[in-house]
Amino acid sequence: MGLLSHLTVLFATATSTALAAPASAEVPAAAEIATPRITSISFSGNGCARDPKFSGTFNNPSVTFTDFAAASPGANQTLNCEVHLQATGASPGWQVALSRNTVKGRVVLPPGTALNYYTTSYFSQDASKTCTLRGTVSNTGTGTLNQGVTLVSDAGGDKAWSPCAGSDGYTGIMNINFRGALTGDGRAYFEALTEEWDLEWRRC
After folding, report:
1. Interior CA angle at 121 toward 117 and 126, to 5°?
2. Phi and psi (nearest 5°) for 8?
3. 34-71: pLDDT as tens digits
4. What are the tens digits of pLDDT across the range 141-151?
5. Residue 50 structural domain
6. Would residue 144 be called left, alpha or beta, if left means φ above 0 and alpha means ψ between -120 and 50 degrees?
7. Could you give the number of structural domains in the chain?
């Protein structure tokens, strides 16, 4: 997923009579934006009582869950797992945000039941600015749904941006919380297997 990371570059269009800007003032190409190095990663929530496995890099991440299984009725109808990630080495003058979250798993939904899922992202340096993405998988038919699912949530224009990276390339503490909640009557089940996310960069 990280290979699909989006890059937002804002630039001014010069007129034919304007003086050319010096090379040092030009917006760097995508290849010049450094990939941050992860310095700390931790998990919290009842959906990851046993730490998931994290692989990949800051721009190409993958989380494999070990015990994210919600069941209804019961005490585990709603589960969440939140990742807390810190990194340094980003290009100065850039900031990052979650643009898409993808969770793969499996559902068992009898008629009249549903899975509601939410992804909330924010940076601890300004926790009041959050982005919450919502989706639903529901069974309105007459038979039980028992199948794999891919839950894709796009932020669109509603993103929570990191602090602007300084000379140390620090992007703050990024938090991404995925939550699944089963509703309705019947014995429903949801298991999250993997989570991946795409990031977007912009000048700040």
Report:
1. 145
2. -105, 120
3. 889 999 999 999 999 888 999 999 988 999 999 899 99
4. 999 999 999 99
5. 2-203
6. beta
7. 1
